[in-house]
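for the writeup, i need someone to sanity check this before i put it in the appendix. the sequnce is what the collaborator sent (i think, or maybe the updated version? ugh). structure was predicted straight from it, no edits. if anything looks off just tell me and ill rerun, i have time this weekend
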Amino acid sequence: MSLREQIQEAMKDAMRARESERLVTIRMLLAAIKQREVDERQEMTDADVLGIVDKLIKQRKDSAQQFRDGGRPELAEKEEREIEILQTFLPAPLTAAEIDAAIRAAVAESGAVGPKEMGKVLALLRPQMQGRADMAQVADRVKALLTP
């Protein structure tokens, strides 16, 4: 079963259980997937869907922080509940050791020797880490490894 099908099943389950907040969040996710399919005129793969989920989580984190800074904790909590719902569609996160091992393997495979070649390493890592690690932190680790 594809990730998109799992999301659609989760939507049906939320409807049956009358979980309105979960239902609204899942519908928003499906709308984002559909919008991207329409924009790109192609069906989304699981990796594409993971990218969309990641992007939505990042947006929610930014919004929650802005709401907290603006003195609106109730809206920040709503965003955080949406993050929890969206995270149920992500695979299990990688441990720090797994991330470091993958980075070392990607550096060896790409032959990167300096920070200017960081893009090559990240291009190899992105497909296997999408949704399983914060790519900003992965990029920081790659940069630290490649900087003499």
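The CA atoms of residues 32 and 52 lie 7 Å apart. The chain has a mean pLDDT of 92.
thx in advance!!
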